[in-house]
Amino acid sequence: xxxxxPPAPTAGGRARAIGLAVGELPAGPYNxxxxxxxxxxxxxxxxxxxxxxxxxxxxxxxxxxxxxPLPAGVFAGNGYGKLIGATQxxxxxxxxxxxxxxxxxxxxxxxxxxxxxxxxxxxxxxxRTVNPVVGECNDGLLSDIRSRPVREExxxxxxxxxxxxxxxxxxxxGGTGLTALGFKAGIGTSSRRVPLAGRENTLGVLxxxxxxxxxxxxxxxxxxxxxxxxxxxxxxxxxxCMVVAATDAPLDxxxxxxxxxxxxxxxxxxxxGYGHGSGDYxxxxxxxxxxxxxxxxxxxxxxxxxxxxxxxxxVEESVLNALLTATTTTGPRGHTRHPLPAAPLLxxxxxx
Length: 352
Known about the structure:
Elements: E1 2-3, E2 39-48, E3 52-61, E4 70-78, H1 86-92, E5 94-95, E6 99-103, H2 107-119, E7 133-137, H3 152-160, E8 179-180, E9 183-184, E10 187-196, E11 199-209, E12 215-217, E13 220-222, E14 241-247, H4 253-265, E15 280-286, H5 305-325, E16 329-330, E17 336-337, H6 342-350
């Protein structure tokens, strides 16, 4: 069944709220991808325990479409995944649909639904080609992935209900059944306000976290046992990580690809193992349309360092948010994953 009202963000559980802000740059008002003007996020969450813990997350830039593409770049740290639409972004440097995140075996149904939704948008009556962009993670540990539970109506709900403002995190949308670093994970988000070439810009990140490795927080390794949780068992953690970054800074596609690359590098900060079965992807887009009569000058490469710092910090904090805001989940084969508990974590860090 669909939960029509995904849980609201848990302010007390986020990294920044418990004193684990990352870096020196200030966050935006919601500390979320939606701090970037013109970017909305929506979730459809599917929970039918113990069989189904899945869903879809929609990232919807205002006005994006086949006739009004946005500059974009993509980077595959490890290409073991099904990032639908990646080759055209790499070739043309253009994003022409919203970005959807879901479960591996549901990705193809989601892409079809996104095409149908896009063709119906005003102004698209004559469109004959469209490049849907759909990322995925494998939620098969905690959900019946073979049932492919995400349907067209779920995709349309996430797209149509996408909104500005706070973004629900943890076990929502495309993050409902995910695990990372031995813990229950899911969706996490963060943002930074960035001084760039004489003006302030915003960079936002949303992470669909589902990867192996050993968690690192402020340089210290943290296992489930370290924070009083039962051992996770022998089931392998496979299934990838999708990192989506957006900015209102005037970047071209090449520069956005550089940003996407660093979004994947940032996963190393939290201990990502970049394993064989983990498709680790970064996708970055700008909110300034490609086709304008006279757009602002592109930022010089020499001035990009603050944005690079921002994406590294925001990805790290987004992953921590995903781990802290998730909820304990048991899947159809009895595997259980617990979120990262804030109080034991802080006690562990303070003990050093």
